[in-house]
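Run log // design_07
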């Protein structure tokens, strides 16, 4: 039995990167590395979660994340149910608790939840008997996105510690930015937050990041350039003069990218707004862009999370998890 098969994840839920130690993060990344190889073989289906039920409960619309979690569960052998409730009137805490009671009666093993309100996923987790994975809650956290970004960086660069990562754009409304700042800093990267003053709140400095309002200075020598979209659906009021002005000063172009390291990787959590936060030519650069790698790593990371969170409920006879040699 391998080290990965023996390892235990010391958490019942995955609600945010804030709860994880560096060792927890490395465990997820190491196991996800093995699942990348599973995805690349002709027979991708495993039986690790046979008999387990996974419910994907999305109160916000999503294609990429929901599909990734669905694929991850099915490739592990789970029964996966998608509940798209983004148009539901369920918003208040009392109603969420009622929802939790209903879900308990269905006896799922894992709930994957996305919600527009920060803290809503944690509230549900306190009232259900199964494991909960946060698939994004308001502007708070998106832990599996940060984990897949870290796996992408580690596989392309060979390490995370010592790298300079520039996270650029709408920091204020981005749960991806917050989770990445926590994770990358915890693993020893130097992190910069780059964007206009209206979109980079001063309190972000408490995450241990450098703040830059000049794009070129913020990209200087960066090993990773992580672009974020303008989340206009979360904005109340005017944060940028216009999309054209925003792209002029903060959109990633060839000219701005020259200030980063010569081999800097370009990342984006998607969906991309070409011509707003990133130029299409830069996004499609096959040598520099890791955007499609991020999509592939997303399924592997979510497989690892589902595996680790269910190990204490699986018979010891199954080996307590995936064994890379396929035994």
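design_07 sequence
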């Amino acid at each position: 039995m391998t080290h990965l098969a023996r390892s235990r994840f010391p958490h019942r839920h995955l609600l945010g990167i804030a709860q994880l130690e560096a060792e927890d993060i490395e465990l997820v990344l190491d196991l996800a590395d093995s699942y990348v190889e599973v995805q690349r073989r002709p027979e991708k289906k495993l039986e690790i979660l046979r008999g387990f039920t996974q419910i994907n409960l999305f109160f916000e619309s999503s294609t990429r994340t929901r599909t990734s979690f669905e694929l991850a569960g099915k490739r592990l052998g789970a029964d996966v149910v998608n509940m798209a409730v983004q148009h539901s009137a369920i918003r208040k805490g009392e109603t969420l608790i009622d929802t939790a009671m209903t879900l308990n009666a269905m006896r799922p093993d894992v709930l994957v939840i996305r919600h527009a309100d920060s803290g809503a996923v944690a509230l549900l987790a306190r009232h259900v008997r199964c494991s909960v994975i946060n698939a994004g809650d308001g502007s708070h956290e998106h832990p599996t996105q940060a984990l897949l970004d870290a796996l992408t960086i580690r596989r392309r660069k060979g390490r995370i510690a010592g790298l300079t990562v520039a996270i650029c754009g709408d920091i204020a409304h981005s749960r991806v930015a917050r989770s990445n700042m926590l994770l990358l800093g915890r693993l020893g990267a130097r992190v910069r937050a780059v964007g206009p003053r209206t979109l980079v709140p001063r309190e972000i400095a408490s995450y241990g990041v450098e703040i830059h309002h000049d794009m070129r200075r913020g990209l200087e020598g960066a090993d990773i350039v992580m672009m974020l979209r303008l989340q206009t659906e979360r904005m109340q009021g005017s944060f940028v003069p216009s999309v054209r002005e925003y792209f002029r000063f903060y959109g990633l172009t060839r000219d701005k990218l020259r200030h980063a390291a010569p081999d800097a990787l370009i990342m984006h959590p998607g969906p991309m707004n070409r011509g707003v936060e990133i130029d299409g030519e830069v996004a499609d650069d096959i040598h520099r862009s890791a955007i499609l790698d991020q999509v592939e790593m997303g399924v592997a990371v979510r497989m690892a999370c589902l595996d680790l969170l269910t190990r204490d409920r699986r018979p010891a006879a199954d080996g307590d998890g995936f064994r890379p040699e396929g035994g």
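Strands lie at 53-58, 79-84, 110-115, 131-137, 164-168, 190-194, 210-212, 224-227, 265-267.
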